[in-house]
Design goal:
Length: 399
């Protein structure tokens, strides 16, 4: 009887298996004859500080909305764009710097099981030189869990207290005594939002209110309310609301409206007073729908002379967070627009405290732009960091 022959495909598979096995055996013999390399030394972790480093630094708040319980502040060298370190900000944390920039105040939330469990709200104090944690104060579990805005956490003029915005949705302010490391008081602020500390008074702050007025609260040296006053109506929240992200130069606070009115207030006294008001948008530009937009939508130079505003065209109801198509520079002494620059998708702007730099965040790509500032306001080519975060919306300057 004749044995049936294997089909050609099966013979090929058998030959391939034999060849592969032979190759593996040869490779194994060759590897076995090689000398064994020396064992690698064990890695060790070290720490470093920013002591001695340049104080030209920028702090960028990253909301990281795709993994929101893992927020952070990224710290960059403003000269070369190098990432110097990071500070954890937990779930939707907001932050502010101390007057000397030696401490970072972070108001944030943690859940005991990460994405669930018991809620803990805390004010954390971090050292800006080591980027190390110093201590925390437990807060009432009602702080505003909001996107990064300037004004949700601010120290008072004397640095004794840190004020934290609450929303349940009822609004109030938690007063944290840094000297005692405890909550000193909770101040009900119905209908009002944002913390605007006076510079010349040790513990006075103001807030914008939904009825178009400004409320001012004065605290004593224990953090208790001793005076509360509300000024006259300053804006129409239905027809042309103010952004609550204000620019501060001493006791002078600048506010821009949705349609482009710039108003300067003096917040040194128990009642806010208007110093000046300027329309930034001409009649011709109004017809094209040019409006301010963003989250930190304008910056005022520390001298009080210059303002740079992130502007977009075809503005409408609801476009007030749109990235910039252009950056407009104004001379505040004359009220004239003196320069127009590419918008670069800007949603946040700030000057360095030294006044030597203008810094911006691109809301589309999260890139950070840093320009050297010169009189006249024309922006020259500067530093670009791509990206500076995942959802970067707020930036502050160390120097």
């Amino acid at each position: 009887m004749q044995t049936p022959r294997r089909p050609p495909l099966e013979r090929l598979r058998a030959w391939a298996a034999v060849a592969l096995l032979s190759g593996l055996l040869s490779t194994g013999q060759a590897l076995a004859q090689r000398p064994v390399p020396p064992e690698l030394p064990a890695e060790t972790l070290g720490t470093a500080t920013l002591a001695g480093a340049s104080t030209e630094r920028i702090y960028v708040a990253d909301f990281v909305i795709a993994h929101i319980i893992d927020g952070r502040i990224r710290v960059f060298d403003a000269r070369g764009g190098k990432l110097l370190g990071m500070v954890n900000t937990g779930y939707a944390g907001n932050f502010a710097l101390s007057a000397k920039s030696d401490e970072i105040y972070v108001a944030t939330t943690y859940l005991s099981r990460g994405g669930r469990g018991e809620r803990y709200d805390v004010l954390e104090v971090w050292d800006s030189t080591t980027l190390g944690f110093k201590y925390e104060v437990l807060l009432p579990p009602k702080r505003a869990q909001a996107l990064n805005y300037r004004g949700l956490v601010r120290p008072t003029g004397n640095g004794r207290f840190v004020l934290v915005q609450n929303a349940t949705p009822a609004t109030s302010i938690t007063v944290v005594d840094l000297a005692e490391r405890k909550v000193a008081a909770e101040v009900p602020t119905p209908g009002c939002w944002g913390v605007l500390p006076a510079a010349s008074h040790p513990s006075r702050f103001s807030m914008l209110c939904g009825d178009g007025k400004v409320a001012t609260v004065t605290l004593d040296d224990k953090g208790q309310v001793v005076e509360r006053q509300v000024g006259e109506k300053l804006f129409d929240a239905d027809n042309d609301a103010w952004f609550h992200s204000a620019e501060q130069v001493g006791d002078r606070y600048f506010f821009v409206s949705f349609k482009g009115m710039l108003t300067e207030l003096d917040l040194s006294g128990p009642v806010a007073s208007v110093k000046s008001a300027k329309n930034l948008v001409s009649a011709a530009d109004q017809k094209k729908g040019w409006r301010p937009g963003g989250y930190q939508q304008f910056a005022v130079h520390p001298s009080g002379r210059w303002a740079v505003v992130a502007m977009h065209d075809q503005g409408r109801e609801g476009s007030h967070k749109s990235p910039a198509k252009q950056l407009w520079t104004f001379d505040l002494n004359s009220g004239r627009r003196v320069a127009v620059s590419p918008g670069l998708g800007t949603v946040a702007l700030t000057f360095s405290k030294s006044g030597r730099r203008l810094q911006a965040l691109d809301g589309v790509t999260s890139a950070m732009h840093v320009w050297p500032w010169s009189e006249g306001g024309r922006l020259k080519k500067g530093l670009v960091v791509k990206p500076a975060g995942e959802v970067a919306l707020q930036l502050e300057s160390h120097d």
